Amino acid sequence: NNQLTGSIPSSIGSLTNLTELKLYNNQLTGSIPSSIGSLTNLDWLKLEDNQLTGSIPPEIGQLTNLNGLYLNDNSLTGSIPPEIGNLTNLTYLDLDFNQLTGSIPSQIGNLTNLERLSLHNNQLTGSTPSEIGNLTNLNYLGLKNNQLTGEIPPEIGNLTNLEDLNLSYNQLSGSIPPEIGNLTNLTHLSLKSNELTGEIPESICDLNINWSNSNYFNISNNQLCPPYPSCIENYVGEQDTSDCD
User: Fold this and answer.
1) pTM for this structure?
2) How far apart are CA 208 and CA 188, in angstroms?
């Protein structure tokens, strides 16, 4: 149970034959050295569950063989570098539970092999980029607990392999796009605690979700207006209907 302490040395960039770098669940501090971009043979980079600070170095975009990038559960700040869009072999990208700010870069739409994208519990702002609709292999999309604004992009309906969509606890506005009915593999949908308005599209009833279980379906604490689709009329939770006709 010995846990590593101290910072990741910049000399780590000399280990150019490494295919896996797994330093997770330690007590590492300091920033991720930019020299990590020299490890171009890496398949997996797992630095989660540490106490890393500073920003994600843009040199991370040089690791074009990466399948998995796990930087979650640290104290990383700054924005997600657009160079992350170079990592086109990524299947898993987990940056949750940090203090990341700024918007989600549109280049994230280049990561067409992604199966899991987890950015929740940060301080991300701006709108959800429409390019997220390019990620047609996604089965999990977690953006909850940020400060995202704007509408849910209709391109989200392209993500037909999605099983779990969690956009809760943001400041999303506008209506739920009818394209949500395309997500026929969805088993979990949470849009709770946003600022969504308008009527809920009937196409939501095309989904095969356990509506009555709030662990699987939750749209409460929005401003969604009746009449509600019959499949969910008993499960919409608290809604502020003061601005409804």
Assistant:
1) 0.95
2) 10
Tokens of 48: 């989660």
Phi, psi (rounded to 5 degrees) for 8 = -75, 120
Cis peptide bond prior to 229, omega within 30° of 0: no
Contact 119, 146 (CB under 8 A): yes
The predicted-structure confidence for 105-146, as pLDDT tens digits, reads as follows 999 999 999 999 999 999 999 999 999 999 999 999 999 999
Radius of gyration of the chain (CA): 19
For residue 1, pLDDT over 70 is answered with: no
Q: Which two tokens stand for residue 77?
A: 């700040």
